[in-house]
Amino acid sequence: MDKNTLSKIISVLLIFEIFLMWPFFFHTIFSDILGGIDDVEGLLLIILLILYFIVYTIHEYFIPEILFALCFFAGLIVLIQTINFQNETDKFKGLETLVNKNFFSLFTSYKEERTILIAKNRLFRTHQMNENISGISAIPDALLISFDKKNKLQISLVEYECYGDGKTRSTEKSKYLNSHIIPQLMQFASSFSIITDKSIRDTTIKDWIAKIIDYTSENNELSDKIDSWVQEMNPNISTRAIISFFEKKLLEAFESNVHVFLIIDELSYDQKETIKNIITSFKVECGNPVIFDASVVKLVQKISFVNQEFEYALTAQ
């Protein structure tokens, strides 16, 4: 086989593989997909693609043709692509289910030793702002208690939302965002805002603090974590006073440091900024705004052509 024929064959194979790999290649560059993969296969595939171009340019002079075959078949061993979540609660492909299981590996800014995640979506109820709006729940999907670097507690009401396989058209997503997601987040922000009657606000806070204490008291690991936080805030505190001190700090957090945290499978920059402006318009007891946090989580499927197995990974933006 002459060099020209071989070059044409190599070109066809290269174009074919790039066609297979372009969704992964594109998503890796612009969405930091490697942060959600536990091994280095994704990185190797990127290196292979770059190597193809370099090798193809100089192969007439330096590289044996066998290297092209090795590179080509190595690149076909694993294919990675982004797929839709099934919904929020599916056991295998549900956004909420998977994020709760992998929360601290996915959101590395929340250190596990300084964070308590209470992923019980029926435990905490807020006061219903407008009971006439159907489909708007008064219950967040999870509660996040963080102990920040300033030795202060932060309260985050977590809401999981997923367009998934059920809402694929842009018009469906826009309608759902405006009619359900935004009102839902406003409901949570208003519950601890000064626009809500203080007696109602105080009742909600008192109830939530009691549930936090009950929940953490049943778990030795969480109890030890709270003891550590309190002793860091007040090194001279007695053991008997730890719970009452923690309750006091929780009250301060509800009155000064409340966040609404949206975890969703699709959200544009403009949509995020719009929601942020709405949520920060709500002020808590001390005058601080309710803070809006958001993260887009994607489900990545890794397909092995060697053993025909499928694996999944999560990425967060």
Structural commentary:
There is one protein chain. Helices cover 47% and strands 17% of the residues. The protein has 317 residues and is α/β, with parallel strands linked by helices. Strands 1, 2, 3, 4, 5, 6 and 7 form a 7-stranded mixed sheet that branches. Strand 5, helix 10 and strand 6 (291-304) form a beta-alpha-beta unit. Residues 22-41 have low confidence and may be disordered.
Keywords:
317 residues; alpha/beta; 7-stranded mixed beta sheet; 10 helices; 47% helix; 17% strand
List the helices and strands and how they pair.
Blueprint: H1 3-31, H2 41-58, H3 66-75, E1 78-83, H4 95-101, H5 103-106, E2 115-118, E3 142-147, E4 153-161, H6 170-191, H7 198-217, H8 220-233, H9 242-256, E5 258-264, H10 269-279, E6 291-304, E7 310-316
Parallel strand pairs: 4-5, 5-6
Antiparallel strand pairs: 1-6, 2-3, 3-4, 6-7
